[in-house]
């Protein structure tokens, strides 16, 4: 069966997200047999974080969320990850990897300046910054 649409891992990479840095689904059965449920939990939480940020960007691009709402949600997520860093180190590692990404897609989106309509060219991500 041919896959349609953009694969999640490619989308994560384009947004500079860590992706599956802390495990893979193929490892879960073996980890469960070994009783390493903490590793499964870390893997699942990392996957959920990646998916949540993908959802935020989709919600923004599909006009289900404003730029202000998107940015506030990203900031809330970053604040949460920072608060949890000491107790759950993988959350801090996710944040560090995301913020250190060399991908051209910023964490926050530009908020419109003034009236609706065309914006100055420096208020959006240029296609030449993304395409090879």
Tell me what the structure shows.
The chain has helices at residues 8-14, 28-33, 37-61, 67-84, 89-99, 127-130. The protein is mostly helical. The protein has one domain (10-107). The longest helix is centred in the middle third of the chain and has 25 residues, at 37-61. 12% of the residues are buried. Residues 123-127 have low confidence and may be disordered. Pfam families: DNA_pol_B_exo2 (PF10108).
Query: Which overall shape is indicated by the principal axes computed on the Cα atoms?
Result: globular
Low-confidence stretches: 123-127
Which bin fits the share of residues in helices? 40-55%
Please tell me how large the radius of gyration is. 17 Å
**Largest sheet entry:** none
Strand content: under 5%
- The arrangement of helices and strands along the chain is HHHHHH
Structural class: mainly alpha
Intertermini distance: 29 Å
Mean pLDDT: 81
Got a strand count?
0
| Number of helical segments with 4 or more residues | 6
Estimate nothing, just give the exact number of structural domains. 1
List the topology elements:
Blueprint: H1 8-14, H2 28-33, H3 37-61, H4 67-84, H5 89-99, H6 127-130
Quickly describe the structure.
With 132 residues, the chain is mainly α. The protein has 6 helices and no strands. It has one domain (10-107).
Could you name the key traits of this structure?
132 residues, mainly alpha, 6 helices, 0% strand, globular
């Amino acid at each position: 069966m041919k896959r349609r649409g953009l694969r999640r891992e490619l989308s994560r990479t384009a947004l500079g997200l860590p992706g599956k840095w802390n495990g893979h689904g193929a490892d879960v059965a073996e980890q469960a047999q070994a009783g390493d449920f903490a590793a499964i939990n870390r893997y699942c939480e990392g996957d959920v974080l990646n998916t949540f940020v993908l959802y935020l960007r989709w919600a923004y691009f599909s006009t289900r969320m404003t730029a202000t709402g998107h940015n506030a949600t990203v900031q809330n997520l970053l604040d949460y990850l920072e608060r949890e860093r000491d107790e759950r180190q993988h959350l801090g590692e996710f944040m560090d990897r995301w913020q250190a990404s060399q991908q051209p897609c910023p964490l926050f989106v530009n908020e419109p300046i003034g009236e609706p309509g065309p914006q100055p060219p420096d208020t959006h991500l240029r296609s030449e910054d993304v395409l090879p």
